[in-house]
Amino acid sequence: MSSKFTIPVTIIGYGSSARTFHLPFINSLPSVFRLHSIQQRPGSKSGPDASHAHPGLTIHPSIDAVFGQDASCQLEPLPKGGLAVITIANKLHFQVAKQALLTGRHVLCEKPLALKSEDVTELDKIAKERGLLCSAFQNRRFDGDFLTLGSLFETSNETYLGEPLFFESHFDRFRPLAKGGWREETPAEEGGGILWDLGAHLVDQAVSLFGAPESLLAIVRNSRCQQPASIDDSFHLHLFYPSHSKTLDASAPAAGTKPAGLQCLLSASVLAAQTEDAQLRFKVHATRGSYVKHALDPQENQLRAGQSPGSHPESFGKHAPGASDSERLGTLTIVEEKQRDWLKQPSEPTKPPKLLESKIETRPGRYIDLYTNLADVITKVNLLPETDAQARREILDKQKIKSSQVAVAIRVLELARQSAKEGRVVTFSMV
């Protein structure tokens, strides 16, 4: 693709997020993205001097300069139809994303997209009205283990798990000493703490699979007691879904019955004293089987080591040779095919059906798919006249991370904090 049709990108902020999670993917896709500029305040201490790392690149001194609203700056702003990648402090996400949209730029924002669900809804509304993309960097939807898990709920898969009954998702680590940094020093109302950090990922994954819950119960606390009590470092979040409305079909062992609703347990701890490859990541029970996976996806560690899909196209997203079985493999247990009609009548006494256990390979992680999806959508939208609102909406609907869905996840996080404060189950609603 010629430079005429590449998408100009400005990275707003030049901290660890920008350098580790965004620049590697932009640089890995030169046929569709062109790094136009970086915004970094003069004297900023959030990262190294961007002008030294990117000589000759435009370095905007202010956010207003990125969008051509700083009269004192003569640098070329990000062209309209370009992509603003927002990687600054969480409390600023909403106002900068809104500014970008109102000035005609597409938006990819680090999670959380905003700290209030109503603000996410407002961004979604503005983006739709103006025919622009507004998305959040929910890259954990492209973890290899999550992609593997999602495939097990596809009815066309021969290892289809059936209707979900229990879903457990962990992001546990052993960090008995607080290391400091903004996540452990910023209060929750400004976007600090583990619920906004890892909770944003775990909730987004659950909502993308199962939708909004019916109610929820949360425990959010500071378990190490080394930071101010208002800054959380662990949580346990239970999501409750309504009972299944349909009876199970003939492919399920308990055909003809209606199981209780799905329950999800989402949890993060900094005091889980296990090795990384022994940490539970997912445990799923469904009407036809179960799936258990330990250890984390390798992509974050690969990025921190300087690897990217561009520099290591064959190995990126895959566990390294010599990785343990728990890192590479998940445990799948399903009902033996010939015994799936074992219970014709719910009242008929019988022994449980035979279960078959196997180890299955984890799919490669695909963070880059988030960026290729953005490129595809933005390129097609930018080729359309601004007056063709219907065609723009149809293309924008192909976003993999939609802000309307992100709003549901942010609302769950809001209600989780309410539940923890009040010590009770709260009903989910968007208002």
UniProtKB/TrEMBL annotation:
Report keywords, A-Z: Oxidoreductase
Q: Where is the composition biased (Polar residues)?
A: 299-310
Write out the GO MF terms: nucleotide binding; oxidoreductase activity
Ranges for the region named Disordered are 295-329
| Protein's UniProt keywords contain rRNA-binding | no
Q: Which InterPro entries match?
A: Gfo/Idh/MocA-like_OxRdtase_N, Gfo/Idh/MocA_oxidoreduct, GFO_IDH_MocA-like_dom, NAD(P)-bd_dom_sf
> Where would you find the membrane-spanning parts of this chain?
none
Question: Does the record's keyword annotation contain Oxidoreductase?
Answer: yes
Which residue range or ranges hold the GFO/IDH/MocA-like oxidoreductase domain?
159-291
The record's Pfam families line, in alphabetical order, gives: GFO_IDH_MocA (PF01408), GFO_IDH_MocA_C3 (PF22725)
Q: Which residues form the Gfo/Idh/MocA-like oxidoreductase N-terminal domain?
A: 9-135
Q: Which residues form a coiled coil?
A: none
Describe the family membership recorded for this protein in Swiss-Prot or TrEMBL: Belongs to the Gfo/Idh/MocA family.
Q: What is the protein name for this chain?
A: NAD(P)-binding protein
